[in-house]
From TrEMBL:
Belongs to the Homer family. PANTHER family: HOMER (PTHR10918). This is WH1 domain-containing protein. The lineage of its organism: Eukaryota, Metazoa, Chordata, Craniata, Vertebrata. Residues 173-318 form a coiled coil. One of its GO terms (molecular function) is G protein-coupled glutamate receptor binding.
Length: 354
């Protein structure tokens, strides 16, 4: 089957600075995929992460490794084979906790695999020792009890089986010795790395205080940012109000543009009308001349009227005089009539009226 991924997450990858052993150096520019792999043929576990074409984590999990949470979203572990300390920054505390739980599970599985391998080696070693003890006695008994033909016929299959078992046990012992030397070397390396990790842990503890101070500063900055956010929200509300005003102004501008178009149309009409103004001016000038001529005639008529008015006044004066004279005449006539009437009455009295 080969290696198969058993758990995958995303995180920012860091490595400890090899010079200072204090500062973290980013191994990836952004969050990358970090996966646990299980190799069924070797019964081993690895953490692998690739950024593009570059392998930034290739760490085989051993029972001696420890994953340490140094903050709510950051964890680290030391790899003696890679001679470095890996750090992972997660987006949430939940992702960190899940990765740490998986690390512990893989670590326990690696420990069980190691214990099982040691038990197998011990079993094979014990079998080898027991086979070594039993083989001479069997051969001795065979040589005492019969001839060579009898030996072959009586113990031949068992000897062949023991021979193959011995060869297999020898190979297993050699492999065990080789693995033992390798594990001793790894153990020494782990001890050295453990000492380095202790130093790194002490440095991390010292850094925790610094991080706490930084966290306090970050909290203060966060409070300041919250206040700024509130101010920005207030400004956004004001901006919304301004936006409403702008919409109203836009509508008013559209109305004014419509009115402007109407005014432009009126202006165009006035321009067209202005084109006939010279003609109207000429007509006005002609009418003015006519009015002046009419005024001249009017003045002449007024002169004539004044003359006629004088004649009328004279005529009226004469009529008044004639009325006075006529009245006098009528008065005289009335007097004469009265006298004639009185004379007739006198004649009547005298009987001379007939």
């Amino acid at each position: 089957m080969g290696e198969q991924p058993i758990y995958t997450t995303r995180a920012h990858v860091f490595q400890i600075d090899p010079n200072t052993k204090k500062n973290w150096v980013p191994a990836s520019k952004q969050a990358v995929t970090v996966s646990y792999f299980y190799d069924s043929s070797r019964n081993s576990y690895r953490i692998i992460s690739v950024d593009g074409s570059k392998v930034i984590i290739n760490s085989t999990i051993t029972p001696n490794m420890t994953f340490t949470k140094t903050s709510q979203k950051f964890g680290q572990w030391a790899d003696s084979r890679a001679n470095t300390v890996f750090g992972l920054g997660f987006a949430s505390e939940q992702q960190l906790s899940k990765f740490a739980e998986k690390f512990q599970e893989v670590k326990e599985a690696a420990k069980l695999a190691r214990d099982k391998s040691q038990e197998t080696v011990e079993t094979l070693s014990n079998h080898s020792q027991e086979s070594g003890r039993e083989t001479p006695s069997t051969n001795q008994a065979s040589s005492i009890n019969g001839t060579d033909d009898e030996k072959i016929s009586s113990v031949g299959p068992e000897a062949a089986l023991l021979k193959s078992e011995n060869e297999r046990l020898k190979s297993a012992i050699e492999l065990s010795n080789t693995n033992t030397k390798k594990w001793e070397t790894e153990l020494q390396t782990l001890r050295e790395n453990n000492a380095r990790l202790v130093d790194a842990l002490q440095e991390s503890s010292a850094n925790v205080e610094t991080w706490k101070k930084q966290l306090s500063v970050c909290k203060e900055e966060s409070d300041t940012l919250r206040e700024k956010i509130k101010d920005l929200e207030a400004q956004c509300n004001e901006a919304d109000q301004e936006k409403q005003k702008n919409l109203q102004l836009t509508a008013r501008v559209q109305e004014l543009e419509a009115e402007l178009q109407d005014k432009e149309q009126e202006l165009e009409n006035l321009r067209k009308q202005a084109e006939i103004i010279p003609q109207l001016m000429a007509e006005c000038e002609s009418i003015t001349n006519k009015l002046q001529a009419a005024e001249t005639k009017n003045q002449e008529l007024e002169g004539r009227v004044e003359g006629l008015q004088g004649d009328i006044d004279d005529s009226r004066q004469k009529q008044g005089n004639m009325k006075v004279e006529l009245k006098k005449f009528m008065d005289v006539l009335d007097g004469k009539i009265d006298e004639l009437h009185e004379f007739r009455q006198g004649l009547s009295k005298l009987g001379l009226d007939n």
